[in-house]
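Q: Protein A?
A:
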Amino acid sequence: MHHYMRNSIEKIEFAIIGGTGVYDVSGLGETKEREIKTPYGNVRAKIGENKGKKIAFLNRHGEGRNLPPHLINYRANIFALKKIGIKAILATNAVGAINTKMKPGDMVFASQFIDFTKSRAGTFCGGKSGVAHVDMTEPYCPKLRKQLFNFAKGLKIPFKKTGTMAVTEGPRFETPAEIKFFGKIGADLVSMTGFPEAALAREAGLCYASVCIVTNFAAGISRHPLTLDEMTVELRKAKPRLDKLILEIANSFNASDDCGRCLN
């Protein structure tokens, strides 16, 4: 990993990456915007505070909410968060359900992903960075996932403990044939943004977990053509419980409590 990524410029250890429909987190109070320079481009993040703890929020799709999944600068985003001292990231993903046991409105804590993207830069390795092979047996931080289970139970928020996410290039929705294929190889969910964030965070030595909100049944399972409006409705309904859970995790996170795998 780049040595200069270790330079923390402020005591902010926890970040939230918001996806479609999650453009802020209620409870962060008045936020200050910061522009962070990286070798991959500049990134804008917001710094807020909850219960005396500073928390960073980054909008994956950009401040104008106009970046489609295949054009998001994933490397710049993760690099920027590492640069300001972040130790852990909780990401949100709007997903379609392939497994019919997972229904619109359900909250799923991703446990595995399968990468079907085509043109994204999915690693920091190469050039001056050299070569590194990171273990992805557990793509998502087990410590953060355990906290998700415990706090969701405490808040009485229903959830699915595991889910395998197939990640496609986008921005188009998938065909029914693709969804049928993904289901046969073990995917429960389909997303356009689930990769390469998890892999980049792992390379950067950051704890990372994903909270997925099922917004629709995937193509061929849904009885009607898919629309962005349909996704937005479910996300709007899920937002209050999502915000509560995110803030509970952010406030409880302690970087000194090393999970033994991610932090470096």
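Q: Protein B?
A:
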Amino acid sequence: MKKLQTLLAIAMGGALLNAGLSASAQPSKPGFATVIRVRGEVSYSLDKGTHKYPLVQGKYLEAGSTIYTGQDGEVDLILAKAIESPQATWAPKRISLAVDSPVRGMVTYRPSIEQNTVRMMPGSALSIDKLTTTSSGADTVSDTELDLQKGSIYASVKKLSPAAQYLVKTPTGIAGVRGTEFNITLNDDGTIQSVSVYKTVGDDGLVLAITKNGATQTLLIQDGQIFESGNPNPLPITPELRALFQEVFSIERTPFWQIVSFDYDRTQTFTSSDIGGGAF
């Protein structure tokens, strides 16, 4: 795997694996994967699957955790920081006048967050091998290494600082990104079925290094391209796949909490609301 990482670092101009040098003056802090949505059967393990426990919304997972989705399971994660679940906060974070002037009362809201996010699809297994944050002046550097063992993930990685890195390992390859919305899907035997890029943000695309029969192939998958097993080079994604990406990532950009409202004229207290039930 070190050989793959070295090749990947070279392909990306040395930015990934040499990333920690500029931030070495500050100690790294452990990051967290915050579970913000669970659907169907989802579990996690701290000992590589020997013992599994049900995964619920609001759970914080550290490096060393492995997440499993059942055949009907999906889970959405925010990486790098522990995100406070709104259920734990009874008081509003911010109050402002309602946008519709004839409506009496007020609304409270939290802005949507800009974080690295992952959606695991049914029948997947994903390990968090490394997840740290380092303060570097005005910037926060994140160091993320995920291990997709089976299944499929959709991920959105915000534009990273030059000292940050984000790697996704698979049984037969490794991918590096720096500001990309992408999907990786594996075959049942762990080989890569497809890697597709929906959109890049200040990045050239996704660098993929694949090993097969002792040889390593390095590819750059750019905005709007897909690499499929059996094709030597990436191809444009289909309109159907683009529409699927748009649906997944439009959900991702919405706040995962809902608006809570109250009316001074009626109860002087908060009314109940479906808090925390959304995705990303």
